[in-house]
Every structure is written in C-alpha cells, then in structure tokens.
Design goal:
- The protein is of the alpha+beta class.
- About 35% of the residues lie in helices and about 25% in strands.
- The protein has helices at about 5-25, 45-60, 95, 165-180, 190-200, 210-225, 235-240, 255-260; strands at about 35-40, 40-45, 65-70, 85-90, 105-110, 115-120, 125-130, 135-140, 140-145, 155-160, 185, 205-210, 230, 245-250.
- It has a 7-stranded mixed beta sheet, sandwiched between helices. Strands 11-10-12-14-13 form a 5-stranded mixed beta sheet, with helices on both faces. The chain has a two-stranded antiparallel ribbon with strand order 1-2.
- Residues about 265-269 have low confidence and may be disordered.
Length: about 270
C-alpha cells in the first residue's frame, strides 16, 4: 500500500478513536478541569488526553513523522524532507466546555509545504470529513462538493474571530458582507466550518487569523471538494505562524476576496 494511503487509512481510524474519547469527556463537561491559555483561549483535560492518544498512536505507527499539536506547539522542530502531522485535538474548545455540540477533532499530514491529507471528525453527529490530495473529498465515505452559489446572498458565510487580531479586522468584512445582503454564521470551530464549506452547507468561511492546526485539514478538504481556498501566508510559514484563511464556493470566491481585502487587515507577527 502506498505510504500516503497508509497514513490516510490510519488517520480515519485514529481520529474516530480520538473523537470517542473526546465525546466521553463532552458528556460530562460540567466536571472538566479547564486551564486558561489567554483571553478567550483555554485547554481542558479532554484536549490534553485526546492529543496524547493521537500522538501515542503516531509514535507507534509512524515514528519518523513530525508532530505539531495545539497543546504543545513549542515542541515542534521543522526538519526538511520529513512529513508533519498537524493536530487539533478539540477545535471549538469554548463551545465544548459549555456543552454546545459545535466542535471537532482535526488531523492533517503536510509535507514540503503541501497539504496531502486531512480529516475532520465531528463525534457528536458521527460525521467524518476526509480528503487525500488528488482523490476528492468525502463525508462518511461519500463524495462531497462545494456549493454552486454565485452570489454572497445565496447562502451562509461563516466568519471566525480570535483575539490574535483586532476587532476591526473582522468587523470590517462582516459589515461589508451585510451591506452586500449576505448572511453570516459563526460556530466557534474553524475546522468544522471549513468542512461545511467543502460539503456545500456554507458558501464561504473567512477568518483574519487561524493557526495551522485549525485550518490544515480543512484547507485540503475544501480544495478536494472543488472549493477555492487561500491561506494568506506561504504554506511553509503558515505551518508555524498561521495566517488569514479564505475558503469559498468557486462562484463567489472573487467577491469574498474583495470583501475581506479592503481596507487591508492587520496580521499578527
């Protein structure tokens, strides 16, 4: 079996195991131990345990691969010629700790700045969005495609926000979206929102800054579903520093770019 197919199959199995563990914690979210990592940024014992499950499975199956996880990003050391797994054990921690079923587990494999496979699993609804480079995107094994929307008013545009950017970087595009008669949506999980763009449930997603563990899997899934995606930093830098992410149905991508680009937003360093 080709190495990438092995990794894809592994990811689809492991992400379900990780999701089952996270879901067990979610069912008793009132008792979770929550630690603050900053303003509106937190980690729970569920995040740590879920990442550990994935990291241990990778260490056993693919010990030569690199690992970049949200709960210990400082441990990542880039090595040329070595593929890297980019993991978010629970994307949407804030909804998670409040009992809101809008979160997921995200796994991606990146090599040489290219996103080669991605998986986003929503354990609450038993939905696995997955893609391998050049093979298309699926939801629970069935092909999915981005929306055929032609106008910003043809569906929901999801908008993400974090305290890594200024409020104006989000409010400006959001205001212009509403003036264009568009409708916005926010779920609290960027990875899941990108998966929804791939499945045609959302017509677009924009966030002024995302970390790579939030977008790596979703970016590939959108691309393989026929959507248009832009990470506003070269891929090799985006892995470490993150960047602004735009993802949309092909028919409205140009309008989305114009909407978020004027005036230019300020990116974190």
């Amino acid at each position: 079996m080709p190495p990438l197919q092995q990794r894809f199959d592994f990811a689809c199995v492991t992400i379900r195991e990780a999701g089952a563990l996270a879901l067990d914690y979610f069912h008793r979210f009132e008792t979770l131990v929550v630690n603050s990592k900053g303003v509106q940024d937190m980690a729970t014992e569920a995040d740590v345990a879920t990442q550990h499950l994935i990291e241990a499975a990778l260490a056993e199956k693919f010990p030569q691969d690199g690992f970049l996880g949200e709960e210990n990003p400082g441990a990542y050391l880039p090595q040329p010629g070595r593929g890297t797994w980019v993991i978010d054990p629970i994307d949407g921690t804030q909804p998670f700790v409040n009992g809101i079923p809008s979160w997921c587990v995200s796994m991606a494999y990146v090599e040489g700045g290219e996103y080669l496979l991605g998986a986003v699993f929503d354990p609450v609804h038993e939905e696995l969005f997955a893609a391998m480079s050049g093979r298309g995107a699926t939801l629970n094994g069935r092909p999915i495609n981005a929306s055929r929307a032609a106008r910003l008013e043809d569906g929901l545009v999801s908008v993400g926000y974090s305290n890594r950017v200024q409020p104006e970087d989000t409010l400006g595009p959001l205001t212009r979206l509403m003036r264009a008669r568009g409708m916005y949506h926010r779920s609290g999980s960027g990875a899941l929102s990108l998966a929804y763009v791939a499945a045609g449930r959302l017509i677009a997603y924009f966030e002024p800054h995302m970390n790579s563990w939030d977008f790596a899997a979703g970016v590939l899934i959108v691309r393989e579903a026929g959507g248009a995606v832009d990470v506003r930093r070269p891929d090799t830098q985006a892995l470490i520093k993150g960047g602004a992410v735009l993802a949309a149905a092909p028919g409205i991508y140009g309008a989305l770019r114009k909407l978020v680009s004027e005036p230019e937003y300020s990116e974190p360093g």
